Fold:
Amino acid sequence: MNNHEEYSVAKWAAFFQVSRSGYYTHISLREQREEEEKAQQGVIANIFNGSGATYGPERICGILRKSGRKASYGKVSRLMAIMGMSSIYNRHKRRSLTDSRKSRGEGFNNLVR
Structure:
C-alpha cells in the first residue's frame, strides 16, 4: 500500500477488507515484531547449536514452551528454514523396507502385471 500512493489508505483498506486503524496499528507494531522475531531466532539458534544440530522444530518448540515462551511449530520451522537450519536426522534418505523386485516370478500370481 505504501508503494501505490495513487489510492488512499481508506480505498486500500476497503479493498483488502481491513480497517484503517488496523492497518496503522500493523505499521506501528512492525518494528517491534521484527525485533521479537530476531530475538527468537537467537534463542532458536542457541538451542539448535547446543543440541549439536540434532533438534528439529518440534523439539525446539517443546523447549521454548517449557521455558515459558510462545512457540508454534510453523513459526519455529519457518525461522529455522530462514536461518538454514535442519536436523541432521532429516537429512538422511529414507529407504523402503520392502523390495518388490524379488516377487516378480511365476510363483507370485497376486501381483498385477
About this structure: The helical segments are 9-16, 20-50, 57-66, 73-83. The CA atoms of residues 103 and 111 lie 8 Å apart. The mean pLDDT is 83.
